[in-house]
Amino acid sequence: GENVEQHPSTLSVQEGDSAVIKCTYSDSASNYFPWYKQELGKRPQLIIDIRSNVGEKKDQRIAVTLNKTAKHFSLHITETQPEDSAVYFCAASTKAAGNKLTFGGGTRVLVKP
Amino acid sequence: GAGVSQSPSNKVTEKGKDVELRCDPISGHTALYWYRQSLGQGLEFLIYFQGNSAPDKSGLPSDRFSAERTGGSVSTLTIQRTQQEDSAVYLCASSPGRAGETQYFGPGTRLLVL
């Protein structure tokens, strides 16, 4: 089955700096890659996603890149703000497997004012 | 519109008791997923439904776990003879199914087995 690795497990950045989280996946058939943000005690919230026919996607301060050949994808947050502090999860899924999500282990991001 | 809802929000039970967790998906969403998140850990797939059928139950940890979905809407996850290792947050998500794969999560049920 699919395996998703996520790095780093914790990330501390100064407000205004950029944060980058990287994930690798094992199943070359994976075709959908969402990123979720989870604040303490809250539900995971989708912040951005990318499909396998696209190499990059941007939404304001957030961008995701996908390298299908290398089977890795990354989340980039620019101009970080204290409210970006949360746990971020990457995930991968395949249509053939019913789109069930296999998650990375999560990255705890702390933005220091 | 209304998002995914789950009940109860918290459940404390004694070891050996049965519990039922409920999920109300977004109206019209044909796909429904259950995940488990242990304290400080990632999310682990349990089971998914397309309509009322469960094509993939591979993530259920043991035969004490079962789930059903009726009317293509509400789903219940049942844990029989609960054990302390069942303590976790149980999250439900729904998606439009064949019309789209984006999953929207409910707030979860926090289960504590004493």
What keyword list fits this structure?
heterodimer; A: 113 residues; mainly beta; five-stranded antiparallel beta sheet; globular; B: 114 residues; seven-stranded mixed beta sheet; four-stranded antiparallel beta sheet; 11 strands; 50% strand
Describe, in plain words, how this protein is organized in 3D.
The complex is a heterodimer of chains A (113) and B (114). Chain A is mainly beta and 113 residues long. In chain A, the strands form 2 sheets. In chain A, strands 2, 4, 5, 9, 10 and 11 form a 6-stranded mixed sheet that branches. Chain A is globular and about 45 Å long. In chain B, a hairpin with a 5-residue loop joins strand 7 and strand 8. With 114 residues, chain B is mainly beta. Chain B is globular, with a radius of gyration of 13 Å. Chain B contains no helices and 11 strands. Chain B is 0% helix and 50% strand. At the A-B interface, strand 4, strand 5 and strand 10 of A face strand 4, strand 5, strand 9 and strand 10 of B.
Helix content of chain B: under 10%
- List how many beta strands of chain A DSSP finds: 11
Distance between the termini of chain A: 41 Å
- Using only C-alpha atoms, the radius of gyration of chain B works out to 13 Å
Question: What characterizes the major β-sheet of chain B?
Answer: 7 strands, mixed
- The tally of beta strands of chain B, per DSSP, is 11
Structural class of chain A: mainly beta
Brief write-up:
The complex is a heterodimer of chains A (about 110) and B (about 110). Chain A is mostly beta strands and about 110 residues long.
How would you summarize the topology of this molecule?
The complex is a heterodimer of chains A (113) and B (114).
Chain A: E1 4-7, E2 10-14, E3 19-25, E4 32-38, E5 45-51, E6 56-59, E7 62-67, E8 72-77, E9 86-92, E10 102-103, E11 107-112
Parallel strand pairs in A: 2-11
Antiparallel strand pairs in A: 1-3, 3-8, 4-5, 4-9, 6-7, 7-8, 9-10, 9-11
Chain B: E1 5-7, E2 10-13, E3 19-24, E4 31-37, E5 43-50, E6 53-56, E7 65-69, E8 75-79, E9 88-95, E10 104-105, E11 109-113
Parallel strand pairs in B: 2-11
Antiparallel strand pairs in B: 1-3, 3-8, 4-5, 4-9, 5-6, 7-8, 9-10, 9-11
